[in-house]
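Predicting holo structure, D-glutamic acid bound.
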Amino acid sequence: IGIFDSGLGGLSVVRELPSVLPNERFVYFGDTGRVPYGSRSQAIIERYARQDCDLLLSYDVKYIIAACGTVSSVAGEVLQNLPVPAMGVVEPTAEAALQVTKNRRIGVIGTSLTVRSGSFEKAIRDRCPNANVFAEACPVLVTLVESGWIDADDPVTVAAVKRYVAPLMEQDIDTLILGCTHFPLLAPILSKVLGERVALVNSGAATAAACAKELTKRELLAKDGNGECRFLVSDRPQNFTRVAEMFLGRSVGEQVEQVDPEGVK
Ligand code: DGL
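Done. Tokens:
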């Protein structure tokens, strides 16, 4: 199974996969040489998504997860036209949020492109037309995560989170979708700032569960894997490895390799 994101964010999906798909093998691509995706245009993200998928296909994957809210929001056509089935994070995460909310007032935080696309609003309103959705673009949070400023007490990240979520809190939301896959890395800070009244919906868990369901339905489940994951990055691996180890709580250094997504086809 191939998984990709612009950088570290997709690890929030990778972290959840082995527990629901213990017999698979995974290959993760973090496009660290071209992060961030969320401040670029749709046309560029479609091109990157195509190249990222081609890279994963060259590793002979049978299924692809776009573990990136931005790609999932604007490059659906790329994902639908691959030689293998693929899924993004928007639909499963929207469904998970609707199962959690009681007052149907749902906040979404994501990248600028994700918020501009209105993807989460659409996915929610298609399933529940009377839900209220409030979205806030939080581009700086992606940079803070990529810099590894994810400690629960980091004063800069806490201040940035407070500033971004303030308008959402005024809307009396009871559920917040982490619509960018980088944001589960900030879950400790987000729960502290938002308090108990707001449930956080993590795209990682929702997407991993949806992927397991999809593979079962398509009879694509493996029996011989052991949940191991190999990591590919498009810039020097040092920073990725450091933050990945912090987030995953295990060493990955040996499995990280630098590749060029523009040199595949
Ligand atoms: N993690 C990605 C997302 O879910 C992209 C963040 C970025 O590169 O801007 O949107």
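Residues 26 and 83 are 18 Å apart (CA to CA).
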